[in-house]
Structures are given as C-alpha cells and as structure tokens.
C-alpha cells in the first residue's frame, strides 16, 4: 500500500496581484489546513516548491513558508524542478510519510511573475544553456511550443482551428472557477484573430504568467483513519521521471537533442514515460481515468498530452477533442479547472494546483465544473531540463 | 569603415567558406553531442568513453520551424524596431540529432517546408558600433 491521503487542499486565486509570493503561499497553506481541519503546529514536515524569480526566500521556499506561518520546528525540504517543482515537493513529502518518518505534511508552492516572457536569470551567464538559448537563438518558451505545434500539423494534419478549439473548451471549463484568472468565454475567431506570437500559435493559445499559490496537506492513511477522515482522496502514484538516453525530442532549454547515432532511442518517449510510470505505480491505465489535468502551456501541447497519457493513439487527439470527449460531459473531461488557459502559469504552484482540482473533482466539490462520478484522475506536466511530473489521485 | 566580424560565442562553430558546428563524438559509441561535451560522455552505455572534437554535418532536413513575432527578453539583443525572426529545427542525418538555429537572412519563412534540405551558414546575430557578432544559421538549399 503506497497510497497517502489528501487531507486538505487550498489555493490563493491566480491573477496579477503584484504582491510578495509568500502572501499567496501562506493564504493557500491556511486554506489547505482549514480544509484538513488541522492546525499548522500539528504539521510534522513542510515541503516547499521553489521559485527562482523571487530571490533567496524563493530558493528556500519550505523554510520561507515555515517562517511566515510561524516557526514550529518541523523538518523541511525545498525543491526546484521548474514547472514540475510542485510534484517534486509533493513527492518529497510523500516519501517521508511512506518511510514512516512522519504522519502528516504540508506542501506549498507560490509565485509572483513579471509581465511577458519568462526570462533566464540575469547577468552574463555564458555557461548557462538557459541564458545562451535566449542570447544566441532568441529561443523563447513559445518558440519551442511553436516548433511542437508545427510538427503536429505536419505529422497529423492538425489545423489552427483544432488548436483554437482547445482554448475555447478550456475557457468554457474555467468560467466559474473562483481561482481562475481568466473567466471569459472565447470563440475560435477570437483565438485565431489574436496576434501571432510564435507561428502557428496565437496570443490566446499561449499561457500567460501569473501570480498564485497552492497547497496540499497529505498524511498516512492510518493517520487519516485515526482522525476519522471518511474516504479521503488519495495519492496513488507520483511520477518524477527523467528522460532515458537518447531523448530525441528537442526540449527547453537545449540547442540540440541527444544523438541516436550510437544508441537506439528507447521504445517509450520521455513524455510517454511520465504517465507510464504513474500508471505502473498505481496499477491503473488510461481507461481507468475519469478526469485529467494536463499542462496546456499551449493549445497544441494539450493535444500532445492526450496521446502521451494514452487517451488516444498518436494522431487522434484532434478527433478526441472535436468529438467532445475531453469536454465536460464527455468521456474523459480534460482541464476541468480551465487549465493554464484560464490560470496562466505560476510555476511552482501549478503542479499542486492540478492536484487541488482533482481532489475537488473526486470529492464532488467542483460545482458547475463537476465531472459526474469522478473517481480517478491524473495530472501531467513537465519541467524544463527533463523533469517529469504526474500524479494519480483516486477516491 | 567596415565592422569587424566576430563570433557571438567562442568555440561553437568554425568560420570560413564552409562553416560547421563544432560538436564532439564518443570514440566507442559514436554518439554525438552539441554543444560539445569535453569532460564526460552523456551516453550512459559508455560513461568512460573518450570524446573527440568533430565538425558536425553542414546539411540536414527541417524537423520544424516557427517565427517569433514578439521581442524576446534579454539577453537577446533585439534590433529597434524589432524584426521577427524564424527558428528552424534541423535533423542531421549522420549525427541523428536535431539542432536549432535561426533562419538565414534573406530566406523566406513562408517558403519553408518540413523535410526540406537546409545548409549551415554564418549570419549576423546583432551588432554594435565596431563589431558584427556572427552566429550559425540555416539556409534552404
């Protein structure tokens, strides 16, 4: 039994609030603690997902949140894995619980982001590939998204309309989500009429950067039982895999892929392997899913994820979308929260926000965006430089 | 007076009539690396293999491409007014790897096709009062 119980979840709404990231993290932590019916002083381990944008307190986020909540002596960890930081922090806490080192832990991630493109760390950094890709290529994150989207069009005949309809769906899903930043319906024409950022992708197809915070309280199943928690949502798997050499898909922030000249590529691509590891750990498969939260950094990437998590075969994601299978009310609703399309990215909080949404869905507390009878959900995400992130939540 | 042309980064490419990217190759496995790896092989099947510096193939086929219409943040040195630029991902047949680069000046992004052949040339990345800083670019054949 490797399950851990989710006792509480909480978020600070996403937006462009301009305050210190610690404010959002503390608000989310307090919300998660209240949801769990727990006092902060009873938390036995605190795990922070780091933000590198917010200076030293961001690099030691676990301690930063512990100090802000009021020192109470709990052991601490801080994790950085770019967009996957939340899953890595969650996994650090889960390992403590499964090893029997603690019973209950708090996991927190929060970010304050500047306007516009995410940029590398400042200064003259000629040994940093993340700095060099901007300097020598102007390879922004959306540029990589544009490369993937064009490739999809070439391989599978995807159209700009297909991509735009991902945004239309997600905008509709997030309309009534109180934590979403953008709560406005958009049409396919709105999307295709917005300025092109990295062709074929338009402004409304690329996720914004946001301020926000998310937190999760997890505990051993015995601890949950001893407190009388009835049928909590449980984490059945966390995958934080790295690629297997050679990784043949160009990834941020790299200039080149690995070479297949010396070693054959693995049968499973990196992105396929992320969910595969989670399914394996949970003893479940794609057919078991009722809901999924996928990392829609761009509209086209959401379609890639459908295939990477096994909802359909390669090249069939457009059909799945256009048949309404991934829309609320469909066979497997994807991004019921509204996804990054409605949130924008608050990097260290995002993987935790995905877990919050699944928890609400599985408890039947998602209000107008509820997927009826959801019992099994999966999150998928990937952090810059080779960080897999997938969490399976069951109830 | 003409500006002096200098590489925007040292040791990543050769200059001259037939410029090429400088990578490395594992002497046991034949795996290629770019940018070049010097101290260690990233191929886990032969972690102790020696690496030799090699010029990568100058021709490949387009894997994908995209044009950026918004000025990127620093350290990219964007001209004022901003000029959109295209990034091309190119599959090298011998090395069996994909390498990024900007599209060469004067090439029409609208004419690009996935699978089309391109070759490596040098072009200007940015300039100051005295220098033109060169970088590798891909040009349709």
Structural description of this entry:
The complex is a heterodimer of chains A (395) and B (141). Chain A has helices at 21-36, 56-59, 61-69, 85-98, 129-137, 141-156, 160-173, 188-193, 221-226, 270-282, 299-308, 317-322, 339-343, 347-363; strands at residues 4-15, 45-49, 76-79, 104-111, 196-198, 201-202, 211-220, 233-239, 291-294, 376-383, 387-394. With 395 residues, chain A is an alpha/beta fold. In chain A, helix 4 (85-98) packs across helix 14 (347-363) and helix 7 crosses helix 11 (299-308). The longest helix of chain A is centred in the C-terminal third of the chain and has 17 residues, at 347-363. Chain B has 141 residues and is mainly beta. Chain B is globular and about 50 Å long. The two termini of chain B are 32 Å apart. At the A-B interface, helix 5, helix 6 and strand 5 of A face strand 3, strand 5, strand 6 and strand 7 of B.
List the defining traits of the structure above:
heterodimer; A: 395 residues; alpha/beta; Peroxisomal Thiolase, Chain A, domain 1; nine-stranded mixed sheet; two-stranded antiparallel sheet; B: 141 residues; mainly beta; five-stranded mixed barrel; globular
